[in-house]
Amino acid sequence: MQFSRGLTLRKKVIDGMTTGAAPTHDDLIKVLHERPDECAYWTLSKGQRIGLAVLVLALAIFLVWRPLQTLLVINALCILFYLTHISFKFYVVWRSLERGAEVPVSADELAALRDDDLPTYSILVPLYHEASVVPGLIAGIESLDYPADKLDIQLLLEPHDEETLAACQLANLPSHFRVQVVPPGPPTTKPKACNYGLLSSQADYVVIYDAEDRPEPDQLKKAMAAFAKCPEQVVCLQAKLNYYNPHQNLLTRWFTVEYSSWFDLFLPGLTSMGSPIPLGGTSNHFKTSVLKALGGWDPFNVTEDCELGVRLHRRGYQTRMIDSTTWEEANSRALSWLRQRSRWAKGYLQTYLVYMRRPWRLLGQLGLKHFISFQMTVGGSTACFLLNPIYWLLTLLWLLTRWEAIALVFPLTIYALGAFCLYVGNFIFIYLAVAACLNRRDFGLVKYAILIPLYWLLMSIGAYKGVLQLLVRPHYWEKTDHGFFPPEEIAG
Question: Which of 83, 126, 247, 290 is 20 to 30 A from residue 438's alpha carbon, by CA?
Answer without folding.
Answer: 83
